[in-house]
Amino acid sequence: MGKAVRLDKFLADAGSGTRSEVKKLIQKGKVMVNGSAAKRPEQKITEEDEVSVNGEAVAAAPEFEYFLLHKPAGCVSATEDAREKTVMEYVPSKRKGLFPVGRLDKDTEGLLLITDDGALAHELLSPKKHVEKTYFARVSGIVTQEDVLAMEKGVDIGEEKLTLPARLEILRTEQEAGGGMSEVSLTICEGKFHQVKRMMEAVGKQVVYLKRISMGPLTLPEDLERGECRPLTSEELEKLKSR
Ligand code: URA
User: Fold this and answer.
1) Is the CB of residue 16 below 6 angstroms from any atom belonging to ligand 1?
2) For ligand 1, what atom is nearest to the CA of residue 191?
3) How far is the CA of 21 from the centre of ligand 1 (A)?
4) Which of 42, 121, 182, 226 fits as disulfide partner to 101, beta carbons 3.0 to 4.6 Å?
5) pTM for the full model?
6) pLDDT tens for residues 125-166?
7) How far, in Å, CA of 92 to CA of 77, rounded?
């Protein structure tokens, strides 16, 4: 906590109750600041102060929250939507100001970072930073070495310029009577609308399933089930901040 905040806000942010609930706790003399019963909800608290409620120490809320969601298909990457389920419904926090860092399409699964740290989000999303994102895709058709080379050079997805060099890896191909299918991994360092789908289309393939595996130093943990959302570990956060 960098600056002084009102006691009632400090307590509400720390999860001790709503603003009106914590005001009542203060009135009842249940809140102590540095060993004396607090009387005013507007009293200013800094990181030096020791605050307790009902005799239990209250730790200040962290400045920002960071969550890793294994986004399932069927929800949109937005904070609010009048008609659709949003990714925020999976986040185990009531903190205001949380938002998804970037977008995955409604039918895309995989790693999505949710935070209220705007500066970090900006770092990750800025086109100048070229943060790598790796996707697993199942596509119709047989992906070839020519496609790998085309992705390395950049493909035309109808933008002003070709896409930046991307790494395409062929994981599996299966010939079928109707033309076959392939599983690939594609690593890109841009974030244009429907980028992976459009890049695969540029080499004549249609994405039928898409999952984000990594973003910068963050990787989707194998034990994080679809729809599960957990706080970043301190190691993940450190890697993210020191990149
Ligand atoms: N590229 C896409 O086409 N869709 C996504 O959801 C993410 C990247």
Assistant:
1) no
2) 8
3) 43
4) 121
5) 0.90
6) 999 999 999 999 999 999 999 999 999 999 999 999 999 999
7) 16
- What tokens does 136 get? 């697993």
Nearest Cα neighbor of 201 from 135, 134, 140, 110 is: 140
Q: Is the CB of 202 under 6 A from ligand 1?
A: no
State pLDDT tens for residues 35-74. Answer: 999 999 999 999 999 999 999 999 999 999 999 999 999 9
Q: What are phi and psi of 110, to 5 degrees?
A: 115, -165
Catalytic site residue from 13, 105, 116, 147? 105
With 0-12 / 13-18 / 19 or more C-beta atoms within 10 angstroms meaning exposed / middle / buried, residue 143 is: buried
Counting every residue written for the chain, the total comes to 243
Cross-strand bridge partners of residue 36 = 33
Q: By three-state DSSP, how is residue 168 classified?
A: strand
How far is the C-alpha of 204 from the C-alpha of 198, rounded, in Å?
10
* Three-state DSSP class for residue 118: helix
By the 8 A CB rule, do 71 and 104 touch?
yes
Cα(229)–Cα(112) distance, integer angstroms: 9
Rg over CA atoms, the chain: 23
Backbone angles phi, psi at 176, to 5 degrees: -135, 165
For 154: left if phi > 0, alpha if psi spans -120 to 50, otherwise beta; the answer is: left
The yes-or-no answer on residue 105 being catalytic is: yes
Helix (H, G, I), strand (E, B) or coil at 231: strand
